Amino acid sequence: MSFLAINEIHHTYLTKNSVTTALSDVSLKIEEGEFVSFLGPSGCGKTTLLSIISGLLKPTQGTVLLENKPISSNNNEIGYMLQQDYLFPWKTIEENVLMGLKLSNQLNEKSKTKTLQLLNQIGLKGVEKQLPKQLSGGMRQRAALVRTLATEPKLLMLDEPFSALDYQTKLKLEDLVSNTLTELNKTAILVTHDIGEAIAMSDRVFLFSARPGKLHQTFQIPNELRDLSPLEARNHELYSNLFEMIWKELESLESS
């Protein structure tokens, strides 16, 4: 039994004047503790698939099973980290990172202590009483990660969480997020347009074709890269070879 099973997903958007098929016959399995990436041309349905996996969108056809149970839209088993941090600007960092616990009625002294310890562990010690505007973009994304992890979700959705950051901050956060999720044995799905990011962070990369989105090819990241931090992986010779291979496949999809 796979941790997450996506079975024959097909999704069509209907409007008054048009019918658009976003996804067609998508099936894949993800194991517990795995970090995978969804990569593909714009319009290939990556974000639509994330919405279906999280239960926010019901597919036209197909099923999604988490630990062999159907996904529901009102569960706390799935956490989201997005391109924007969506921290409340009028609340302190401490209030922000505890928000998910409060809304899900999980806030108590034990969960609060654990969350604030995690805040310290990822380099945000001493910012608890500060407002988001007092932090850099990278620091705010760290706070957003802590808020996401506080409710202890079984599955994390990372929807281009580093794309708005400068390159140096992005690389640092890739390492931080990767190490944190590995230590906590979290299962994660990253949606990205960045081939290098997908290779450096993932165990597997799922490449989708566009309009309608179909699973085109799966790339297994070699153990030599998986055993390294994302930053170290980028400097390995296998990284360049894999980058070129995926680049060519992606280019052929975009030109077809």
Automatic annotation (TrEMBL):
<keyword id="KW-0547">Nucleotide-binding</keyword>
<dbReference type="Pfam" id="PF00005">
    <property type="entry name" value="ABC_tran"/>
</dbReference>
<dbReference type="InterPro" id="IPR027417">
    <property type="entry name" value="P-loop_NTPase"/>
</dbReference>
<dbReference type="InterPro" id="IPR003439">
    <property type="entry name" value="ABC_transporter-like_ATP-bd"/>
</dbReference>
<dbReference type="GO" id="GO:0005524">
    <property type="term" value="F:ATP binding"/>
</dbReference>
<protein>
    <submittedName>
        <fullName>ABC transporter ATP-binding protein</fullName>
    </submittedName>
</protein>
<dbReference type="InterPro" id="IPR003593">
    <property type="entry name" value="AAA+_ATPase"/>
</dbReference>
<dbReference type="GO" id="GO:0016887">
    <property type="term" value="F:ATP hydrolysis activity"/>
</dbReference>
<keyword id="KW-0067">ATP-binding</keyword>
<keyword id="KW-0813">Transport</keyword>
<dbReference type="InterPro" id="IPR017871">
    <property type="entry name" value="ABC_transporter-like_CS"/>
</dbReference>
<dbReference type="InterPro" id="IPR050166">
    <property type="entry name" value="ABC_transporter_ATP-bind"/>
</dbReference>
<feature type="domain" description="ABC transporter">
    <location>
        <begin position="4"/>
        <end position="235"/>
    </location>
</feature>
